[in-house]
Amino acid sequence: MQKRKSLGGVKVPISCLVAAALWCVCIIVWPLSAAAKNPDEEVCFDCHEETVTAFYNTSFHGRAWAATEDQESGCESCHGSADQHMEADEPSKETIKTFGSASLQSPDEQSQLCLTCHKKWTKLTFWEMGAHQENGVTCVACHGIHQSRSAVLQPTTCFTCHRDVRSDANKISHHPIIEGKVDCSDCHNPHGTLYKSMIVAESTNQLCYTCHADKRGPWIWEHPPVEEDCAICHTPHGSRHETLLVERITSLCQDCHTRHHVVDNKLTFPVNDDGNAKRDLGRGCIECHHAIHGSSNFRRSLTR
Questions:
Q1: What would the DSSP string read from start to end of 87-115?
Q2: How many CB atoms are closer than 10 A to CB 51?
């Protein structure tokens, strides 16, 4: 029977206490042994003890390099040769490669250092064509080199720059982005695509159909703007109008259609005294025209 030791009234197996002690030893010894594998790491450790220790304990890069036999892996893999940095009377950012907004390296130079290892990842194929690269957004603007391997916190990280989207996402009608049911990367590839707004599909419609398959059709009687682009009527992130519409239903429909009334089963088109068609203000087109995305029953009416 396994022996147990009482801690605060709770009996804990001795094996658990031993495992915890060994884990504490590993946390202290591992970064030192990992740094010792590469002589240059010891030099970094002398001045940057806290950073190097945290790097090998918590970061994905550090743990990956600690487990490899590659003697070249370490601080200099990203920060370049430290010779000039160590020989300087007062080591500074001017004598070594750094990352972030305060770096002396250009955004492109910073990203190219990351691409040295990550360029084979398929999602980075179109990095050079992406809006982030074109606007000088570096990898470290979203990713932490010294942090553990975890997904970028969405949408918080994205909202740091895309404040207009944050505003839309908080409107009364919105995709469930802030609720965490939809991530920015579900629709966009932040590393670049061939398509507008770096969406992950060939067109807006194909992207929307990923979730809204019931709107795909095919229909006998199609609604042309629906077939052309969902964004003609809907805004993707959020709207103050129902169902993410770009404006109120009545106004939206009358941007293309002349209003009409049905009197004694006859269709009439009211006009003003100047001959121009009147616009309805308080009526709802979808009260009669329910199938606005397409119909398989009645031509033009889209009522079923």
A1: HSSS--GGGS---STT-SS-HHHHHHHHH
A2: 13
Q: Examine residue 38 and state whether it is found in any structural domain, yes or no.
A: yes
Q: Establish if 261 belongs to a structural domain.
A: no
Mean per-residue pLDDT for 96-123? 91
Cβ distance 84 to 96 under 8 Å? yes
Candidates 251, 199, 254; CA nearest to 229 is 199
User: Is the pLDDT at 47 greater than 80, yes or no?
Assistant: yes
Domain span including residue 26: 1-81
Average pLDDT (184-206) is 96
Torsion of CA 276, 286, 253, 256, to 10 degrees: -80
pLDDT band at 52 (very low <50, low <70, confident <90, very high): confident
The count of domains in the chain is 1
Q: Is the per-residue pLDDT at 262 higher than 80?
A: no
**Closest to 231 measured CA to CA, from 254, 208, 256:** 208
Asked whether the beta carbons of 43 and 87 are under 8 A apart, the reply is: no
Q: What is the pLDDT of residues 149-183, one digit of tens each?
A: 667 899 999 999 999 999 999 999 999 999 999 99
Residue 24 within a domain = yes
Three-state secondary structure string covering 196-219 = HHHECCCCHHHHHHCCCHHHCCCC
Alpha carbons 222 and 297: distance in angstroms, whole number: 11
Is 44 within a domain?
yes
What are the pLDDT digits (tens) for 214-242?
999 888 888 999 999 999 999 999 999 99
The phi, psi pair for 246, rounded to 5°, reads -75, -20
Spell out where the chain has E strands.
4-7, 10-13, 173-174, 221-222, 238-239, 261-263, 266-268, 294-295
